[in-house]
Amino acid sequence: HPAPVAARGITGFRTMDAVLGALAQAIPYRVPADGEGGNTLISIGGHRPDGTPYALVDFFAGARGGGFGSDGSEGVSHPAGNTAGSPVEILEIENPIVIDEYALITDSGGAGEFRGAQSYVKQVTNIGNEATLQLRSDKRKFPPYGLHGGSTGSPSLNILNPGPDEDLLPTLAQVPLGHDEVIRHEMAGGGGWGDPLARDPTAVLEDVIDGRVSVEAARSEYGVVLDASGTAVDLEATGACRMGT
């Protein structure tokens, strides 16, 4: 004391990410782009209406970077850990909370010849008494790096009571969480690998159809133009866009 010792996992994740970034310069085709920075940890502790204590501890992962030959993977743990998220039904039945949203975020993965994984959002409402909220997250000021021309992934966000009067919390935080208050966490997205203009237009089209990439980002990030139906690539327009004409 008073040296900080909590949330030590973040330091380990960041060290491994930095080492991999260095190795990418020596063996570029064997190291993927950067990921979300380790599993986000949302902890909520307090008392149920009947006075019994509870402690919700929920990890969720992960948004890995793209690598040579493959896009980044969603929902897998950071290589330095081995955890998995808890089912929403279990979290809600054991704790006085409601999971309002748990979903992938469009355009959050870094663009590249091999796209970074999409990030997740998890939004939680406290329907019990006032509790204590703890957050462990990373990769906001320095979002997941891309490699070899790939773009960075989206940064993480911790938003208390989303809306007109929302508060943006730091990556590591401990604050009260009142009755009916909401915490929204958006995990960082994986970085892209390689030049986005080299990505197969068919793969970009599939990403748009799947909701991973918007029509606007397909054009601005990948130079891929879709036809009026949004279900096919306009090859002539795509060629001109990628040539900058």
Describe the structure.
The chain starts with 8 loop residues before the first helix and ends with a helix. It has helices at residues 9-26, 88-94, 201-209, 215-222, 235-243, and strands spanning 40-47, 53-60, 97-104, 120-126, 131-136, 157-160, 167-169, 172-177, 182-186. The chain has five helices and nine strands, in the order αββαβββββββααα. It is globular, with a radius of gyration of 20 Å. 21% of the residues lie in helices and 22% in strands. A five-stranded antiparallel beta sheet has the order 3-4-9-6-7, with helices on one face. The model has no long low-confidence stretch (mean pLDDT 94). It has 245 residues and is an alpha+beta fold.
**Mean pLDDT reading:** 94
How many β-strand runs?
9
Based on CA atoms alone, the radius of gyration comes out at 20 Å
Which sequence of strands runs across the widest sheet? Answer: 3-4-9-6-7
Calculate the terminal CA-CA distance, rounded to whole Å: 62 Å
Largest sheet: 5 strands, antiparallel
Which structural class matches the secondary elements? alpha+beta
Give the strand content.
Answer: 15-25%
Number of contiguous helices? 5
Query: What is the percent of helical residues?
Result: 10-25%
Shape: globular
Return residue spans where pLDDT drops below 50 for at least 5 consecutive residues.
none
SSE string: HEEHEEEEEEEHHH
